[in-house]
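Take a look at the protein record below and tell me what you see:
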Amino acid sequence: MLEVKNITKYYGKNKAVNNLSFTVRDGEIFGLLGENGAGKTTTFRIIMGLIEANEGTVLLDGKKIDYNETDKIGFVTEERSLLTKLTVLEQIKFYGVLKGLDENKIEKELDKWLEHFNIKSYKNRKIKELSKGNQQKIQFISAVINHPKLLILDEPFTGLDPINVKMMKDAIYELQKEGCSIIFSSHQMEHIEDFCEKLIILVKGTPVVSGSLKQIKEDYGIKNIMLRGEELPIDEIEKLKGVISVNKVRGELEVKIESKDVASKVFNLVKNKNITKYDLVEPSLNEIFIAKVGGIHE
């Protein structure tokens, strides 16, 4: 289990991370979100022991993270961090040995992951000869070759097509089943919604949203009604108290309401019309992110 307790980090007078706390339990996938420059990378570096926080502590399984603990952490960076003149086997052996693994065990694990990603034939190919997507797979393998206790994923799907995204997701779920604690960061909110039950959104190093995804959506309040039908009374819907906006979206009518209590008022207006769809849906994480982060800049 990872415990981040009240960490604060300054660069000069600039406060990059401000009193940040969260816990990632064994087998849990936790979302750490924010704009570029929000403090995510600084947080990752503190967790990995690359830099020290000015205040607060970070514990992995109850122990402060030092050189004895960093081998238990895997990190997939947004930027490529591969030695492109090496072959795939040489690259993975290099990282595996650094993590204290036996070379035979490294090669056995590598074969398993290459088969999972359907790239067994690339084992002795040089990194520079691989596509960006396949390089991303190798970067992932290098981070998990030792079955880490904690895995940090920063934009792990970069350069991957939908088929390979599914392969990567399956690999992440496999590690989750092993009990790995996973921190997931992405600007693609649909991936966060797929993976994370709990998350934090940072703005300038300060948490502005935190908790379970379910509770965050509930607390946000605003809901969407998706309508499809003939002769819908758009003008009347717009005049209802509690209706924020009415827009046409991909052939449907999206009615944004202040709370689910307003839904019955909308239904009463359309129930006698020829409606073929009436769905009350939760707001997307993307919508919440824009509202919470964008509003701070106004």
